[in-house]
Amino acid sequence: MLVSNWMSKDVVTITADRSMMKASKVMKDKGISRVPVVDGEGRIIGIISDRDIKDASPSKATTLDMHELYYLLSEIKIKDIMTKKVTTIREDETVEKAAVLMLEGNFGGLPVVDDEKRPVGILTDTDVFKVLVDITGVNEGGTQVCLQISNAPGSLLPVIEFLRENNARIMSILTRNEPETVEMKDVYIRIRDMEKPDFKRLQAGMEEKFQVQFWVVDPVHRVV
């Protein structure tokens, strides 16, 4: 799954000499929580988030009057509060790698850059959630069954063959990555809804032949 297929391409940028108030207005107007900061040639040199603005803003308990507060905020430049060490990703890299970087860095989005370090998009944690929903097919309902199978090569084939013989339509298959030294691994298979008698026979047959951990039936849910 490439970043290019899931990122937001309408990326908003700002220059480091603009005021913190300008950055705040841009984020509010666009409904975003972070903005890449670029130099005069459009190359990324930092990033500013709503958290940075909140941390730099005076406390609500300030004794400054409105005019003094406005002056203070207008004098704070983006370059003074932005994060200068920016973690980025390229559009030809994977969403999985992006998820690892976001998890390790504890942030909710990554600027996507080209070879010249110019922003070409943004990938957020919301985009990663959309990937999970899309690849599993959970928004279309169906039933997920979790099995424990051998970690040996070819161990999934009998399961797939059994599902085919019982006219089960597979929506997605996910498996937990385990070291070769681990004998068993979990596999999660989502199948489309079936007629109740057919589904009951499928359940009984799978629980007899395989190590079934659980069944979960999900309703159809359209993501807006």
Distance between the termini: 21 Å
Count of β-strands: 10
Oligomerization state of this entry? single chain
Spatial order of strands in the largest sheet: 8-9-7-10
Count of alpha and pi helical runs: 8
What CATH calls the topology of the largest domain is CBS-domain
Tell me the name of the CATH class of the largest domain: Alpha Beta
Radius of gyration: 25 Å
Based on Cα principal axes, name the global outline: elongated
Instruction: State the major sheet.
Output: 4 strands, antiparallel
So, the CATH homologous superfamily of the largest domain? CBS-domain
Order of helices and strands: EHEEHHHEHEEHEHEEHE
Classification by helices and strands: alpha+beta
Describe the structure.
- This protein has 224 residues and is α+β, with helices and mostly antiparallel strands.
- The protein folds into two domains: 3-131, CBS-domain; 137-218, ACT domain (Alpha-Beta Plaits).
- Helix content is 35%, strand content 27%.
- It is built from eight helices and ten strands.
- It has helices spanning 20-30, 50-56, 66-75, 78-81, 95-105, 125-136, 157-165, 196-209, and strands at 14-15, 34-38, 44-49, 89-90, 109-113, 119-124, 140-150, 170-175, 184-191, 211-220.
- The strands form three sheets. Strands 8-9-7-10 form a four-stranded antiparallel β-sheet, with helices on one face. The chain has a three-stranded mixed β-sheet with strand order 1-2-3.
- Strand 4 (89-90), helix 5 and strand 5 form a beta-alpha-beta unit.
- The longest helix has 14 residues, at 196-209.
